[in-house]
Design goal:
By secondary structure, this protein is mainly beta. It has a single domain, classed as Immunoglobulin-like, CATH 2.60.40.10. The chain has helices at about 75-80, 105-110; strands at about 5-10, 15-20, 25-30, 35-50, 50, 55-65, 65-75, 80-90, 95-105, 115, 120-125. Strands 1, 4, 5, 6, 8 and 9 form a six-stranded mixed β-sheet that branches. Strands 7-3-2-11-10 form a five-stranded antiparallel β-sheet. A hairpin with a 2-residue loop joins strand 2 (about 15-20) and strand 3 (about 25-30). The longest helix is centred in the C-terminal third of the chain and has 5 residues, at about 105-110. The chain is globular and about 40 Å long. About 20% of the residues are buried.
């Protein structure tokens, strides 16, 4: 039963947002663990009063240790919503999860920084 499943807090796993063009942003999943992630599920959506984006779901079989993968490109219109990215994955037999919340307004208040492993400037969640 679901109540019997123990969900651990994800660690050393990040979402990077890198502006690709004036109105296009790429989202990356970064694994900074010393072990691979398996059975990765990512759900993304955005909303604000009067607007709601579609929920997009991604499945990745594996992400090697100390690596990254681009999983979505987002238009400026969607970036301006309050966005949620829900991540879950396995390491061994343990399930880990984490929710990343952000809005474009929050991001632009900070300076882009070099993203580990990717070596491009962007925002790290």
């Amino acid at each position: 039963m679901k109540k019997d499943i123990i969900f651990h807090q994800a660690q050393q796993v990040h979402i990077a947002i890198i502006q690709n063009e004036d109105t296009l942003f790429d989202l990356y999943l970064i694994n900074q663990n010393q072990t691979a992630l398996r059975n990765i599920l990512i759900n993304t959506n955005g909303e604000k009063p009067g607007y709601k984006s579609s929920t997009l779901r991604y499945y990745l079989e594996r992400l090697e240790e100390l690596s990254y993968i681009k999983f979505e490109s987002v238009m400026q219109d969607v970036m301006e919503l309050n966005n949620s990215i829900m991540l879950s994955y396995y390491i061994g037999m343990d399930i880990f999860e984490k929710e990343f919340l952000f809005s474009y307004d929050q991001l632009i208040k900070t300076s882009p920084q070099e993203i580990p492993l990717i070596k491009q400037n962007g925002y790290l969640l």
